[in-house]
Sequence to fold (747 residues):
Amino acid sequence: MEFIAHVRKTEGDSWAPPHLLRDHLMNTAELASRFASKFHSEQWGKLAGLAHDAGKGRLIWQNYIRLKSGYYDEEAHLEGKPGKIAHAIHGAKLVEETHGKQIGRVISYCIAGHHAGLHDWSGAEGAGRSSLEYQLSHVDGLDEIAKFIQDAIKTVQPTKVPWSFREGLDISLWIRMLYSCLVDADFLDTEAYMDIAKANMRHDYCSIPELLERLNSYYDRLASQKRENNLPINRIREWIRQRCIDMANAKQGIFSLSVPTGGGKTLSSLSFALEHAKDHGLDRVIYVIPYTSIIEQNADVFRNALGEDQVVEHHSSLIEDDLTPKLRLAAENWDAPVVVTTSVQFFESLFAVSPSRCRKLHNIARSVVIFDEAQLFPVEFLGPILETMQLLVDHYQVSVVICTATQPAFKERNLVDGKVFRGLKNVREIIGDELEVKRLYDSLRRVMVKFPDDIYSQSSWEEIAEQLVKHEQVLCVVSDRRSCRELHSLMPEGTYHLSALMCGQHRSEVIQEIKAKLERNEPCRVISTQLVEAGVDLDFPIVYRAFAGLDSVAQAAGRCNREGSLPHMGEVVIFVPPRQPPPGILRKAAETTRSLCAAMEKIDPLDHSIYERYFSELYWKANSLDAYGISSLLKPTRSDLGIFFKQAADRFKIIDDTNQRTILVRYGKGNELIDVLKYRGPDRSLLRQLQRYAVNVYIEQFYMLLGRGSIDEVQPGIYAMTSEIEYDRQLGLMVDDIQFDAKDLII
Fold:
């Protein structure tokens, strides 16, 4: 008989010739081997590909895909759905039987989870049925697997590991990378059969040298326009970019790029990354950014420079689960030469277990990863994050650039209580030594920061509003959405509001309006959450900032006199608001600033050298740099290679998505796109476009909106507004006030 892997219907609703299992296993093995070759694990990837669907080589499964009625089951291959017959665990068990527990256990994690996600090795009594240990011990029928599959598996012998593994996260990251190779290979070969048109749209990208040529041409045009202004800051920006280009031929590793806000580090860091990728034959540049507000801006810059179709902007939470075949095929795998994503998407994926989130991980290998505004890394996860970054550099041909005006203390060091901070090794500064960095910061000083005389005396929102209305052009930054709306309500008509309750497209349009008013020197007042601070190119003569961490103060200062065009220094006024920053790291950051204010006669947030002390104290104040015990869950036991992948993934949530849901809003083009999604279904291009019309809300708000019919389920697991009524053109999504955590600003 012909063994079948997948079936599909044609547009005429007849059955296409089936996808043969032999072809699928060989193609998946070839792809997985090629992907794994980036980290010297070809044979491991090949074995996983050959064995992953071995369970389909049993007569019971073949009869199941050919239903008794004589018709095929198009979704038979999707495990984990009600009524579906398992097949993945058979391949996992077969590999352990044929290759022994040491080699087989590594591959069995990958195969057993290629539909359902990586498993924990063992589980508590009652919950243990989902563990890999339990499933392997309760599988039978291996002798029923087709002989051609068993013979093929025996021909592959991955006898060597790619390097000598160290204690900690090394082995678990390697297994997850192999898993990524397998699931992406499986996705791609399945897509080539299920949706030929979609498969043909992949890989139509320029080479890294071609993109570098485009970037240089774009920069030359931009620079020639700016030279006409003859502002000193433009000459300094050109010098920074040249330093990046000169440093790009250095050997791969970890770099820092310390540039004050307004120094043009976005294009300069991209110049470094593309030059570095060209010199070392790397595949792509991944730009990791904390806030979607910056992603929208930077992705637009990159598209203008490199081409609309050369940049993938990925921060959607719409395709986190394998809900339908179409959603599975729509999941991103970061195969573009330039990827712009959030720190949440990047880091949560590195600790994830689901196929849709992990399939892209192997494409991080052989890349340059730029972490913009790296001071915003979540402190409670800093331990596993930095260890993983170091492993990517050491074993996966990754170069890392830590890019910020306020460099966090990520290097290895001793903390004040005698503990050791196991950070990053051999970090090289692109700008130069400490003296050169100091000169650069002094040359770009364009503002004076004024702290209140009494750092404990609060001002009411009415008092703050009274001060703000005295200025024709002013930006005020607060630490949470509720404060933003309260203060905005006290301001004159025409005052702009910016928060993450506005969808990305809405924020982008408002920011463009603000920029246009400032350029025309028209009155312009803005109340914003901190999403405006990091990288948003606004230029106000005066900025007010609610008392916060020193790094937040410096970032707010970057929105003041940004171009250095004022005849005098810009002014940044720090005030103590009536509400503390949200609990967690933002509050601890504000407390650290207070302690430094008390300890120092004068504090200067624009002094680069102060951040070593500031971040060291902030990290010391944190309860833990691995607050949820991620590292202990992913450290394998020696006897049975026991790793708890799922528990670690459940705990590694930079945003607690158990308490949040994503809603698509009917703003602008979002109306049309939501209707297309509702009636045509999802695809990758459509979901990318819809990212700009998404808003995250608390679960209580979600059910409140659902209960009154304000939202409905337009596709399985995807919810959208039913009308425009509850989306305000000034404030965004209208939901009842809840005290938000600072992390809710990040999507």
Summary: Residues 657-745 form one domain. The chain has 28 helices and 23 strands. The CA atoms of residues 97 and 156 lie 14 Å apart.
